[in-house]
Amino acid sequence: MSHARRLAVLLVTTFAFMACFAVWMMFGVIGIPLRRELGLSATEFGLLTSTPVLTGAIFRLPLGIWTDRYGGRIVMILLLVLCAVPVWLCSYANAFWELLLLGLALGLVGASFAVGMPYVARFFPKERRGFAMGVFGAGTTGAAINMFIAPILIARYGWQGVPRFYAVALLATAALFWLLSAPDPGAGKSGASVRRQLAVLGDLRVWKYCQYYSIVFGGFTALSVWMPQYFVQEYGLGIAQAALLAACFSLPAGVLRAFGGWLADRFGAHHVTWWVLWAAWIALFLLSYPQTDFIIHTIRGPAQFHIGLASLPFTTLLFALGVAFACGMASTFKYVGDEFPSEMGAVTGIVGLAGGLGGFLLPILFGVILDWLGISSSCFMFLYGIVWVSLILNYLTEVRRLPVMGEAIDGPAPPIAAAGGSREPLARLTAGEG
After folding, report:
1. Per-residue pLDDT reduced to its tens digit, 71-116
2. What are the beta bridge partners of residue 293?
3. Quick check: 280 and 328 in contact, CB under 8 A?
4. Phi then psi for 272, rounded to 5 degrees?
5. 8 A C-beta contact, residue 422 and residue 416
6. How far is CA 325 from CA 76, 103, 249, 251, 370, in A?
7. Domains of the chain
8. How much of the chain is helix, strand and coil, in % rounded to 5?
9. Which of 390, 425, 395 has the alpha carbon at shortest distance from 267?
10. How far apart (Å, rounded) are the C-alpha atoms in residues 93 and 48?
11. Phi, psi (5° rounding) for residue 296?
12. Under 8 Å CB-to-CB from 415, ≥6 apart: which residues?
């Protein structure tokens, strides 16, 4: 197959994933008027926005297996066409339980990741696979596109106009994908049974990559649906302004995923993941500090001070967090592509399932913690703690090379361990060495 043909497959599959992701994140914006209309609590809002993520997470594993068996082309087309039905019906829902049920149905579009990722990877050689998967992963910019399109549709047609527009967009995308895609070169070549494919669950590396991805992708998904209402509640912005600022997080997290794939190809998945976790940890530490007023009693009388992030520095830090998550998503699947080439569909489904479950649980937990503490930045406090745990796991298993998960460690430690945690990896990145 020619390079131009492979590139066309990559681009149309990325576009299909982008359309699916916009639909998957739809409730993050239309949930704002729905929350007012239905009088939802923070916990109920978190449940509404995360319900589609649950179905998309659960079905990533079976769809990844079916992609290995039947091919990514046919599975993607069927997914786009079938999901257009519940998306359209969503515009007629007028009760909270109806929205939850339809959210479960339309959430299948989120499983398109486990279809497209192995599909595009099989068209490229190993040394280009990280970049190809990074480009495909840039389809997560659908979250940012949703934040541009949905507020305009809400202003003109009400929130009901959003699902109707997206249903038509899914059908149009299915037609375009049918015209420009190609038969999957790996379809039917995996003769392994489902039980044999699931045997990779016994490999502890898979669980470690699940943990990484539940942070970078789960955190990205959760914050993509949570941030529009965060800006509305915390800074008193309108829906359009809040969605625009929230896009400063979701847009780089999608666009720069290809850059993260390039970094992972050049410098290795471990080095990129290590620095991603550190960058996310620092950003979340700063984002966690709540708006605070305090008074110091001085000899001249009380002195009042305020500590808190204004919207501009807050959005800047959110942008940096989005860049870190983008590189982390790409580096995680660089691990998968290099270490599980023959079981890529199954492992992609498993790791994607973990990431999707993270994206489902986190908004609900954000809402529960917010209702409990009443502190808006509590969502960042929670993520800060999770990233800290991930840093410890990465340090123990890949820097110190300790068999803390029961795995056998063979071969020399990577350069970062040899330097005792020195800045050697950063120096190598700066110097451009492979």
Report:
1. 888 999 999 999 999 999 999 998 999 999 999 999 999 889 888 8
2. 306
3. yes
4. -65, -45
5. yes
6. 26, 25, 10, 11, 23
7. 3-187+197-431 (1.20.1250.20)
8. 80, 5, 15
9. 425
10. 13
11. -110, 125
12. 424, 425, 428
